[in-house]
What we know:
This protein is mainly alpha-helical. The chain contains twelve helices and no strands. The chain has a domain at 11-132: Alpha Horseshoe (Serine Threonine Protein Phosphatase 5, Tetratricopeptide repeat), CATH 1.25.40.
Amino acid sequence: xxxxxxxxxxxxxxxxxxxxxxxxxxxxxxxxxxxxxxxxxxxxxxxxxxxxxxxxxxxxxxxxxxxxxxxxxxxxxxxxxxxxxxxxxxxxxxxxxxxxxxxxxxxxxxxxxxxxxxxxxxxxxxxxxxxxxxxxxxxxxxxxxxxxxxxxxxxxxxxxxxxxxxxxxxxxxxxxxxxxxxxxxxxxxxxxxxxxxxxxxxxxxxxxxxxxxxxxxxxxxxxxxxxxxxxxxxxxxxxxxxxxxxxxxxxxxxxxxxxxxxx
Length: 263
């Protein structure tokens, strides 16, 4: 397959640029093979520079394996990430907290709730211990993902607080509107679990309307992330009976990816 660099000349910028090209086209298979190629190239390197590049690649692979429902590879790459984090001495850093969030989210997706909660707590502990700035996208993402895991253990109060804390943070960060929309959809799920579908119906409709208003904002760039989000949102809208809008979102997502593949 095509690669962006010659063997043993790893440039993380060039590797990730090529990866982004595949993602923009919605080609997860090519994106996966591309990152796996470079994982194999760098896995036995003793060079710290290569290890840092490998760490970045593995962080992306965790998300890819999560999306493609490949539990075994997701767990294997998570173990490798933990090993690399130790070797690179990343203790008490934002990088480590972000990695913990990434790994925790995989455990959550594969229903290992205890492990997920433990890693989310570890990420939060780093922010608290080191007094890092919490008005950031990464921290809001941690809160959002942790809140979703808390739904699985029925801690609805804490989950609700985290969701709205995430929205408060994202509101003050440029170009985070889509994340706010997705958080409203997460809260809709919370309300159903907490109150039951019938009792939560009005609140859910309000939350869906808020998410829809954001997704229909004409100023949003219709890029691959927007396409990915539309695809995710479509399943939520469909579940709550908004079938025509869900269909529209799915078609919009497909069109964006198709346009990118034609370039």
